[in-house]
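Why do we care about 3D structure at all? Because function follows from shape, and shape follows, mostly, from sequence. That is the central idea of this module. The next example makes it concrete: a single protein chain, its amino acid sequence, and then its structure expressed as tokens.
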Amino acid sequence: MNQTAHRRLHRLAACCQSLRGSHCQGADFFKGRSLSTGSKSSIDDITISKTTQAKDPLSPPPTPAASFPFSPNEWRRFPLVASADHTHDTKTMDVALPSPSTHPNLPVASCVLLALDSSSPTSPSPLSRPYTPISSPTAPGRLSFLIKAYPDGALSPRLHALQAGKDGVWIKGPFLKFEYSKNQFKSILMLAAGTGITPMVQCLHAIFSDPGTSNPPSLPPSLPPSFPP
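And the structure:
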């Protein structure tokens, strides 16, 4: 360290030590520290800057807490506005968000817990199950689910019995299942069945809605005839 830098360092230390009630660490911060002489670095190179995290295009935009529709710490009730048969045992079900412009801001890929009404207007029934929304994580106004009713299911048959425009569901979440970020992998091969299909649908919405994606997923090649149905 040259003499000029040394003098400046000690003046800065003395200045910090004289500041009462500040967050400076005083002269102790500089004890035993020196500046590299192998580069052009000097005391003039010391700067205080505010770092910001790089924004992922797929990350939900920052929103005020009051406008965020869901919470992983509490249950909130949403009206059921649509329920339609998709197959003989599967329904698509839509719940309305607080306003047509409200975005769900769900991280990809995440699920939420669903529960039904209870005798109390301020809390749901204790029975809940996780479901992955299939609508776009940033589409405003509604949240869509694809729900299969199992004959021996504890909750799914009761969800199928709900009437749009009359009933509602309670939602808690979201809970991140797998964190996807844009162009995270060189290639993506999706293999899913059963409840694993809906997280893939959520990822596909995020992937294909972003024009800058350079790694669109591909379907697996044709399976051999001996593969179990």
